[in-house]
Amino acid sequence: MSDNNMSRIKNKQNNQQKKKKNNKGKKKKSWFKRIFLTLIGLFLLALVAGGSLFAYYASSAPELTEEDLLGSFSSDLLDSNGDVFYTLGAETRDFAEADEYPEVMKEAMTAIEDQNFYNHFGIDPIGIGRAAFGYVTNLGEISGGGSTITQQLVKLAVFSTARSDQTLKRKAQEAWLAIKLERQLSKEQILTLYMNKIPMAGNVYGISTASEEYYGKPVEELELHEAALFAGMAQAPNRYNPYVNPEEALNRRNVVLNVMRDNGDITAEEAETAKAIPIEEGLVERSDSSLNSQMFDSYLVEVLEEVEEKTGLNPATAGLTIQTNIDMDAQQAAFDIANSEEYVNFPDDELQTAISLVDVNTGQVKALVGGRKQEGQLLTNRTTNTDRQTGSTIKPLTTYGPAIEYNKFSTYHQLVDEEWSYPDGTSLRNYDGNYVGQLSMREALVDSRNVPTARLFAEEVDRADATEFVENLGLDTSLMSKEGGLVDSNAISGTASPLQMASAYSAFANGGSYTEPYTVSKVTTQDGQEIDLTPETNQAMSDYTAYMITDMLKDVATNYNSSVGIPGVPQAGKTGTTNYTSVEIEEHNLPSDAVPDSWYIGYTSNYSLSVWTGYDKKYEEGHWLSNNDGTRQLPRDIYQALMSQVSEGLDNSDWTKPSSVSEVSVEDGSDPAQLPGPNTPESEIVTELFVAGTEPSEISTTYGEDLTAPTGLSAQFDEESNEIAINWDEYTLENEDEDVTYLLSINGEEISLDETEYTVSEPDSGNVQISLSVQAYGNTGPAATTSVTVPEPEEEEPEEEPDVVPEEPAEEEEENSDEDVEDTPDDPEENSDNPSESEDTEDNNSNNNESNNDDNSSNPPSDDSNTNTDQDEE
């Protein structure tokens, strides 16, 4: 083939390869173009869909009126008697004109709340996008904002601030109204309305009012550091309240100053000068009205949260009539107990407490104290906090309640207290460091022993049952552990608020019904609409569970009677203590007996009262509780002081055992439970509670069989031998290894024998009473009796003297003979019989007595023996 041909072929091949490359390039560009156009299309589609959805939502937005922006209506709070005890809202709001607000206040507010305020048209598109993204990623819940000051004003004027209302629809309506408002009002008007309307902690609304309340001066005189504080409080007024949380308020104020500096509103030097001013500087003392409202501040916090959460209405502006459940006498008593030294000896003002009083029959919250020695309004309410462990107060809820409810265990159910570790190998100990061996469920709960409780929870209680039981009582199991559910350690401690615990225990007090605790029964709107906020009551457990738990917890209250006892008031309760870890003890150099939390939850047939004590900063020097200084007993002291007052004049009846519960006497130590045998000592019999239908039927033989009277007892007197022969049948026991002893009683004199016969020699004449019983297993059975008559002995006639014919002596001899006979009575011939008979009889009696003594010598004296035996039996 010529070179030309070769060249021609190569060129052809090269051309073909170029065409292929060009085709591939075109295909790639085509795919990129398609993807790009698709994305553009999807974006436009989403934009159209989003715009359509926005338009749809906006079309249903409410009207924004001048009254909404400028006016507000105060709300009246009624106590349980229907009397107004607090008015919330308009009376603590001073409106200031735009020119009254200093420039530094306006700069601080826009710097921290809305830096683009003077440039946007009512909404921040980037913020809206962020909110939309949060809506998608959080399954329909708005997680983050980007709201402008205009939007925030709309929210305060028209919408609810409840988190449940943070929906995409609400956001769209809020944005639409903000856009409309920007067309109607100037930026200065909008900012002024906003600063006049925002809440500033407690019952204070608007910065103008706050300036008077906090610093005692008109708003136009505010200085840089003061303006920065108020601007920072807008985000979370209660959290950044300088009276309540000065450290957090200081940090927030300084953040505002830094932003103003970075924004160019102030110089770095001005910022540093303002930051150097103490947060407390210039603050005035609270007014008398603030001090008075402090008494029910914790209750007020819960009322406001409850109304907003359940109705979506703002109590501060909506003009509501709120029917609360507060008992003002109980609230005052609880406040006085927590904030004075009249009832309880508190070690210092830093120690905190949480007191929750609940009506067990309705679920109504009657009194709340969320802290002591606090200043300010709408402060931290520790009765609803869940950041402290419950200690052993959780045991009836997670362990013993489910064991009775689902397993139908009795209060006698036997457990074992011995060295034991959790299934994961973590060791566990009791409060005293000891183990007591076998014990009943009642004993384990009353003595608050950790090991048998944890074993019961881990080995015998189904985890699903425990979860259901706890959740039926209003507790959130997702908070119980890092894993988000019940774990082994929840047998002896858990996470729940003091108010939740008081309500959960209410179900034990009322027979098993649970009602979510509530501070508000009814809300009446300004137009007369009534909103019933009474929650439903549900049967959380069987009546047998409620009664049996109560019966055991009554023993706890009895054990602590000196500190919680109230004459004439039956009650039940449970203590609880948490511990520092060994690492915490070492790291913070804590005493070995120090604990961070102490609880007592007790209840009567009327009230359930939960008391927690501890320190907020539990690692600081001296911020622990101890038995040495009595601080661990403080919850019981608080409980007794309050419960005794609220129980006065009430029918404090004891609990009535329902038909679903049986009270049964069982032999202590039997496992499973057995009924006492006929010979079980009284000291070994305990009375416990069983779910009807699960009572034990087997009779214990630990202390032997049912001994009966021996048979064949007979007694015969043999006149010739002068003896009583007593005989009886041999007694046979079912347990052949057990020895039988016969207890023979002859005219009250007792003799113990191993044989089945006995002989009484030379018995006294008359009727001889004989009884015989069997002794075995340490007990004495019933006696068989008989009697025999021993006749009086017959008198023996003297022997006749033989006829002797004496010789007749002379008269003189005859006289001498008479004298000799008279003077010599011991003639051996004449009295030979009677003296010897007397001596023989004496000897024989002596021998008989010795013989009898020998028989008796093998047995201890009967009286002493019986006395000791009775004492042992008792």
UniProtKB/TrEMBL annotation:
Q: Does the keyword Ion transport apply?
A: no
Q: Which residues form the Glycosyl transferase family domain?
A: 82-260
Q: Where does the record place a coiled coil?
A: none
* Segments passing through the bilayer: none
The UniProt regions of compositional bias labelled Acidic residues, in chain numbering, are 792-843
Where on the tree of life does the source sit, at the highest rank?
Bacteria
Enumerate the SUPFAM superfamilies for this protein: beta-lactamase/transpeptidase-like, Lysozyme-like
State the reactions this protein catalyses: Preferential cleavage: (Ac)2-L-Lys-D-Ala-|-D-Ala. Also transpeptidation of peptidyl-alanyl moieties that are N-acyl substituents of D-alanine; [GlcNAc-(1->4)-Mur2Ac(oyl-L-Ala-gamma-D-Glu-L-Lys-D-Ala-D-Ala)](n)-di-trans,octa-cis-undecaprenyl diphosphate + beta-D-GlcNAc-(1->4)-Mur2Ac(oyl-L-Ala-gamma-D-Glu-L-Lys-D-Ala-D-Ala)-di-trans,octa-cis-undecaprenyl diphosphate = [GlcNAc-(1->4)-Mur2Ac(oyl-L-Ala-gamma-D-Glu-L-Lys-D-Ala-D-Ala)](n+1)-di-trans,octa-cis-undecaprenyl diphosphate + di-trans,octa-cis-undecaprenyl diphosphate + H(+)
Alphabetical UniProt keywords: Carboxypeptidase, Cell shape, Cell wall biogenesis/degradation, Glycosyltransferase, Hydrolase, Multifunctional enzyme, Peptidoglycan synthesis, Protease, Transferase
- So what family is this one in? In the N-terminal section; belongs to the glycosyltransferase 51 family. In the C-terminal section; belongs to the transpeptidase family.
Matching entries from PANTHER family are given as: BINDING PROTEIN TRANSPEPTIDASE, PUTATIVE-RELATED (PTHR32282), PENICILLIN-BINDING PROTEIN 1A (PTHR32282:SF29)
The protein's name is Penicillin-binding protein 1A
Give the originating organism.
Marinilactibacillus piezotolerans
